[in-house]
Amino acid sequence: MLDPRPGWTVGSPKVNARKLVARKGDVSRGDFRVGPQGRTMGGRKIRNMEEFAAVSGISRPTVSKYFHDPSSVRQTTRARIEAALEEHDYRPNIFAVNQNRRLTKNVGIVVPYLSDPFFAEIARNIEKLVIGTGFRPILLSSHGTVNQEIENLDSLRSIKPAGVLMAPLGRSSNRDAVETFCADVPTVLFDSNIRDLGEAFIGHDNAQSIALICEYLCRTGEPPAFFEMRNPTNPNAYRRRRTYGEVMERMGHPVQLVQVDGDGWDFEEIGYREGNRVISENLLQTDTVLCSNDRLAIGFLAAAYECGRRVGHGNDRALRVAGHDNHPFSRFTCPPLTTVSQDYTSIAERSVETLLSVIESGERPKRRITTLFDGKLVMRGSA
Amino acid sequence: MLDPRPGWTVGSPKVNARKLVARKGDVSRGDFRVGPQGRTMGGRKIRNMEEFAAVSGISRPTVSKYFHDPSSVRQTTRARIEAALEEHDYRPNIFAVNQNRRLTKNVGIVVPYLSDPFFAEIARNIEKLVIGTGFRPILLSSHGTVNQEIENLDSLRSIKPAGVLMAPLGRSSNRDAVETFCADVPTVLFDSNIRDLGEAFIGHDNAQSIALICEYLCRTGEPPAFFEMRNPTNPNAYRRRRTYGEVMERMGHPVQLVQVDGDGWDFEEIGYREGNRVISENLLQTDTVLCSNDRLAIGFLAAAYECGRRVGHGNDRALRVAGHDNHPFSRFTCPPLTTVSQDYTSIAERSVETLLSVIESGERPKRRITTLFDGKLVMRGSA
DNA sequence: CAATTTTCTTTACGCGCGTAAAAAATAAAT
DNA sequence: ATTTATTTTTTACGCGCGTAAAGAAAATTG
Fold first, then answer.
1. Which of B243, B322, B261 is nearest to B286 (CA)?
2. Are B5 and A103 inside 8 Å of each other by CB?
3. Taking phi first (over 0 means left), then psi (-120 to 50 degrees means alpha), and beta for anything else, what does residue A264 get?
4. What pTM, to 2 d.p., does this model score?
5. Is there a contact between A91 and B154 if contact means CB atoms under 8 Å apart?
């Protein structure tokens, strides 16, 4: 057992404050004492809601009600509470609050890999939106592994979240674990779908966007080969592969799948290593490469550079390279990467909207909703 | 007030289980029922520690002790508890636990900007290390704003963390807010120092690393200009600027500071925009540019490419560009970026080690420890 | 103004667990 | 086997807050 910590104030000994009762006419005596930082300090520190109720002159149950929903109390009492709040800056103990509420204000956010700027960005957007709704976001990354994903769900379950926004790993996700979780807590999936799981899925329309970029590439030069990983974990990758094939067949062009080995989340590394191989061994039958995602494309571009192949859409080019996702860094590659964007603003917004409507309705929607957003062509220098 | 949610099991109505008492000889009756997934299920769900103590045949206080530290109970009782644990997979209610422990097992991790892969990576490392020590990491990003940083500290304070690992925004951080926080909870600063705040600072030796790369650049070509933001928020940037100046003077070379405007965290964008300007307006008196960090360098490289300036160390080069940090993406620029690494493995390790020793000792160290790790030169194609 | 509705106060209990103290049981040592 | 040291059980209370119920006070209505 650890000793109490003399140095810090958080672990200070408990005191029983139950005897404190607010009476009409009670007045805080500390109004004149001004703290070192110039903030007005109450006579003593507020330790709990009981004490805060006392100094604010309002009963504790009403104060409790206020913290749950400030608009649920009369305007005049709200003003008194908020006045006291300015003097004493008290905050309800989050553990005690959540222990007793059956519905916490926590919203879990799970992403497969936070070091990927794509997910970092979408997580950041979602976080802000969640805060805006008055909920408390808890962001967890699965670090690319199933075990961590399951661990994250377990961890979330134990904090009784009002709902969860989850971008699953994809194919490697443990379906049973996710299913069990979804049965317990309202969950909205985004980015990667797992069939029939969660209340809704919000994602990107890969069929639309891949068709878009394929048609663009075919219209402006040689039809593309499709550069991808052989066994991607992300289900979107399969959709992209399939759509690429369909579009090429429809247009009467050969389907050239360049499927490379490698797993994990080091996509740039894989794109670089395998791109180097593909280029140096002359495995392409075309001068145009569509990469399954921007991170692969970034690696591929590095490989092309190293091999001395000029990439671009000028006449002196040796290669055209395109990506998919409009990854935050794709603007700064050399040349800048032509790609097709995911509308992550909309995906983020719709995801939290959907989750919130489920939370507030308090019941499962009759049927699972799937929403896909279109991508836009982002023409830059590389293709 | 929200309705109870009929669909989900987490919000199920409470039941009073206080009457349940474990007696010697009590045996769980559910051992034969096997759940659909093949997991053995207890006869009924375990709702609290009382019930779990009952089915495990151990008293609740002892079970409580076990969960705090499994090695603190006798080997035989530990085995009995763990056997019961396999049957019933019970987990203590995290809110109830934390409410009553003066020292929670939570460790806060605050980074200034999680969408920056550098911080994402170091956060990932730290998270893993923290988990390895049996603590529970809570990762928060300040999204580049002071308000969010303060908000994060407030938020952390309310969950009574055993300690916090914090990479502050730097100059823009609110010193008072951080100071107050550090007075309440054991805090170790990393990456960016704030003078005298926190129990320790673990960071990178910018003087060493900048000297290293400056000397390398001077030895192998023209002395570098220093490309940086005029008013960086990060204190490391000032240290780098200063060291650059000192080294150049010591070596008898002109100090060429290229200080560009811009704020926020879109460093690539700033490097690109201002790099474009600097190059096209021919503002450099040398062919060698040392950027204050890799993200600026990445933008600068994009600008050089767009302007048709060949970057590298070959004879046909127009420019040499170097960065600092060994950012995860700097391997994949064109050409790959020559830079100097930060030893973030060591920084992460030492940070959590330091925090843990403070937590376990239970008292503030007599004096604040500052630890800096050396960087290594990473020679790649760009300089 | 009284009658009605809304809001607040009082009182009381519960949540799931930490933890202290004394008694009982078990293990280790003599 | 007895003494001693260690661990567990019993009992009991507290944490900070949610929340229900009944009565009191305030605001609204006519």
1. B322
2. yes
3. left
4. 0.85
5. yes
